[in-house]
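Ex. 9. Protein: YolD-like family protein.
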Amino acid sequence: MKPNKITPGSNLMWESSRWMLPEHKEALQKLKQEQSRQKRPVLDEQQVEEINDKLRQSLQFHLPVTVCLFGEFKNREVKGVVKRINPALGQVKLVNDQEEEWLSFQDIFDVSIEDDWE
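Predicted structure tokens for YolD-like family protein:
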């Protein structure tokens, strides 16, 4: 005989407690989100100089770059050409076919110069 909920030894008494209140689900989702929070990477002087050099090259020679940006829960990549660097505000203006975007120096943790423009 195939065991089911009614067969002896089943856990029928606790079957009704398998549902969760919406408040509990929401609390579990918030907990999972908090656990997936990332810490901002700390860059040394050499890494910062390397990033600055690549941004300057993109600005001067109109080279396409991929900029990796820190996000609390998920990092993201932005591709484009540097059009302006504003050291006073700590921002870089990156332009691609679809949009222009100002990026904060604090969020940039890696820059690579692209070989070809897509």
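Check your answer against this statement. The chain has two helices and five strands.
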